[in-house]
Structures are given as C-alpha cells and as structure tokens.
Amino acid sequence: MRPSPSISPPCAATLQNTQHRREYQAVLMPIAVTFNGFVFNQHAVFDAFPLARTPLMLDRHTYLTLLLSTLLLTACGKGSTALPYEKDASFKQMGEKGEQALKVVEAECKPLVVAASSIPSVSVSGGLAHGITPDFGWNKAITLEFQVPEKLPSDFPVPSAAGHRCWIEAGGGLKPGIRIIKSSCTDFCALPHDSHLKDVPALVALESRADAEAIEQKRQEPGKAKLQALDAAARKGDYQSRRNLAYGYATGDGGSPYDLVKACAWYKVIVDSNSPKVDITDYNNAKLYCGFLQPGQKPQADALQYQLEGNPARTPDGKYPIIGNNNAEIRLYDRKIGHARRFNTKLEQIAPQLAEIERQGAMLDYAERKRLDTFFNQLKEEAESLDDLPFGPLNQCRSAGIVMGQYWQAVRNHEDSNPSKMRYQESARDCKMQIQTRPKPTINLLAMDGTPPYANCLRVLSPQEDRSKPVLWSCDKR
Known about the structure:
The chain is α+β, with helices and mostly antiparallel strands. It has helices at 11-14, 18-28, 60-76, 89-92, 95-108, 110-114, 209-220, 224-235, 239-251, 260-271, 280-291, 298-308, 327-360, 366-384, 395-412, 418-436; strands at residues 39-40, 56-57, 85-87, 122-126, 141-147, 165-171, 177-179, 197-199, 322-325, 442-447, 458-459, 471-476. It contains 16 helices and 12 strands. A hairpin with a 5-residue loop joins β6 and β7 (177-179). α15 packs antiparallel against α16. The longest helix has 34 residues, at 327-360. The termini are far apart.
C-alpha cells in the first residue's frame, strides 16, 4: 500500500511538494459525507485505503481530522503552492540569516508566491547577480533567479514577465531593501513606480547598518589621499581626472565612497564640457549611472552639477536656490539642428508617397513590402538618434519619425491609418516649430510654495499637495 503523505497545519508547509498536494486532493476531495453516522462514500478513498470496497465507518475524531484536512487543501489552492527553491552552496553557507532574508522576500513579494505553481524552479544564491550595488552598502545579499514561461495562465499575477528571466536581489546594510533591475519583473515585489529599489527595513537581519558602516570606512581609508588629489584636478577641468573621479564614485574603485549622485553629476559635467576628448563612452556612462538614481536623487545631481560647473548657487537677489539650467538642451540643439533639418526634409518627401500607396490600396508584393519595412525601420533609428531627452528641444522631430513608421504599418496591413496619420501630422508641424526656435537660456529654481518665483517662470514638476515640499520652476536666465 502506498503511504499517504502526512499533514502539517500551516498551508505553506502542507504544500511543500506539489505531488503531495495532488495526492491529498485525489484521496480527500471526492469524499461524500452523510451526517447520520459519518459514513464515507466507497468511491472516495481509492487505492490509498484497501477497505474502500465496503462502506467505511469512522468515529467522530477521525472524520473531523479528514474534514479539516480537506478544507485546508481547498483553502490553499494552487496560488499558495510553495516556491520551488533550489538553494546553492553559497546560500546555505549564510545559515539562518539567509533563511530569514528569504522569508522577508516572500513576505514582500506576494505576487511571486502566488505565481509559484507556474514557475518551474527558483534558484537561490548568496551574493548579487549584478555585482556590487552602488550606494547601498550591501556586503551580504541573496539573489533569487527564475525563468518565467512564455505561456501563462490567465490569472498569472505578473503577465508582463512572460518569457523573461528575472533576478530579485535583497540586502541589508546602509539601505536595506529589494532590487529588481529588469522592469518587466518589478511587479513581482510591487516596487515603486520608476524605481528599481524597494525599501525593506526588515532586511537588516541580513546585515546591520553598523556592520556595513564599519566595513565601508575600512575600505575607504587607503584611498582618501588619492580621492582628494583627483577631486582637486577635476575641479580645475582635467578631463581624465573627472572621468576617474566619476568612475570611482559609481563603482567604489580605488577606495572611493559609493555615491551615485556625485557620479551622475560628474559624468554630466564631462559630457557638457565641450571638451574634444569627450567620446561616446562618456555619454553612455552618464546615461547608465544617472539612470540608477532614485527619483528624489535626480534634482540633487542636477544641483551638484550646476555648482561644479562654477555657477552661482542662488539667484542674484538671494531669494531662491538655483539647481540647474538648460545648457544641455541648447548644446543638443546646436549639435543636432543640421541633422534635424535634413530629417524633416526627408519626412516631407516620404509623406505624400505613403499617402499615394494608401490611396491606391493595391497589394504590394513581398519584395516591395520587405524593402519598405527596412526603410521605415532605418527611419525610426534615425529619428531616435535626434533627441534622447524626455522634453528635449527636438523631441517632436523624433516623434514624427517614429509615428511615420506606425503610419506605414497601418497602410501595410490595410488597417485604419487615420489615428497614426493625424499624430504624424501634429508631430511634423511641431517639429518644424522646434527647428525654427532655438531654446532660450533658462535656470531651474526651487520655491517653497506654488507661487511662481518671477513673472516669467513655468512649473517643471506637477503641483504638490504638501506645501512644505519645494516646487521646481524653469525661469528665464537672470
């Protein structure tokens, strides 16, 4: 006779093994009970009970035990299946602290637990999948790694993760929390909007702040003299010193303190310096490390960059702090304006040709469709190279090129093209206006209420209900 699995009270513990859960359901779920004498249907017990060929008389205690088990299994359901962990040696060496951190992750990542029955396995290791986490002080961490299947049930809690490989990293130290780099996977742990880090104070169980500070001070001590020399040379404008300083703040190289705000500020100083030595790697580093900033850190980096470039910290009347300007937008406009004019001319030539293809409504042969697909893909890439700023000086030219591709797809597939055609026409009109209008120099100010600091100021951020928080304004340069 096959032994039936034992039953543990907690739901998660009961369903540690998916096969056990199915065996329980096969044995218990079809049981029919009559209230006179607690007689069980003979078809319910199957091969787990050899006496199933005859009615089975059970006492009240046995009946209640089986009934409670049945209700427990029904309540658990597939959404509560335990995660199929595969713990490697590095995690096991962490002992109880690693297990505690894993429990915290489960508590903070409820959608992951709900999705357990659809995920084949979750590997757990000690350490980080993406190297040292700058600015967090994570010397001890755990990483959960798993592959999400392409085909998912309709009730899967994070449909955006279909087909993706996800990494969930958790650490204590200076900033205890959970980090998920891949945006498709952030909903597994309900990370805040526009952030790859979720604050989780309970993860200090993995590493205390005091321990992290002691380790960090010891690491920085040998590099203090070098850091001071680099800083002095960087402030004098030396290109390579600026690069080394920014890299040190970004990665902790050479005993530098991890400081992403300073790293971002220095990289932005480099790319905005107009030095002939600036190359594509500088632009990529600025985009990479500034992209790691939390939303509240971005204004800090802008303010520091502004001051490092030798600008005044306050308005001439001393009333408002200055935290930035639009010099980067002006330089981008001056660098790309020739490209934008040529690109706009190309769009003006293409639009009537595409309209004629749509008017004829003829089926294009395979070779012609392939040629046009390639052409519009190249057009999209060219558009994206015009402006990579969210509200940049040529962003409408970029938009016009992208929407033109959507217009072609609608024509190609014989779909309703009016929405994309209208969006293209609007973007093309705004693109012409941007080409004709060079941005005026502005400065960004912080004010403590919703009143414009000066008559020519425009609010940059959306209104804030909390009047104790500063509001960012863009004003003509004074």
